[in-house]
Amino acid sequence: MAAASPSSCIFCQIARSSTTTTLLHSDDKVVAFRDINPSAFRHYLVIPVEHIATVKDLQRRTQDYALVSHMLTVGQMLLSRDAPDSINYRFGFHQPPFNSVNHLHLHCLALPYIPRWKRVKYSSLGPLGGFIETHKLLDRLKP
């Protein structure tokens, strides 16, 4: 999959409010919205306003660590507000080649998975990549 230019990237368009997507949160760094193909009871995406293609483009530096931390804080706030009775939450990123959109996006899931088989999409595949939990990515990025 070729990297999208920011002008053709659907998530960049959402971040610039040039779509009809309803934003659940918006600030100068990130926006959040519902996943159009939810895999759980609540499934939100938190994306940076700035175009960053994938987790592979993040580095061990303060600004990337701060961005991912902020994305997680926003996701946690939204799920605690909208799914307060959920017992299980998952927060993480798909890694290439398993990401569907080449714009960094945090999956914020209030479980259960719906349908249950969708849990497979959110599994780590070890050295092959797959899904990386936010806390593991933060460990990797910590300056």
| Percent in helix | 10-25%
Count of helical segments? 3
Using DSSP, what is the number of strands?
6
In one word, what is the shape?
A: globular
Low-confidence stretches: none
Largest sheet: 6 strands, antiparallel
Structural category: alpha+beta
Ends: how far apart?
30 Å
Top CATH class: Alpha Beta
Strand content: 15-25%
Task: Give the tally of structural domains.
Answer: 1
How would you describe the oligomerization state of the chains in this entry? single chain
What is the string of SSEs from the N terminus onward?
Answer: HEEEHEEEH
CATH topology: HIT family, subunit A
CATH superfamily: HIT-like
Give me the CATH architecture, please: 2-Layer Sandwich
Strands of the largest sheet, in order across it? Answer: 1-2-3-5-4-6
* Rg estimate, integer Å: 14 Å
Q: Averaged pLDDT, please?
A: 92
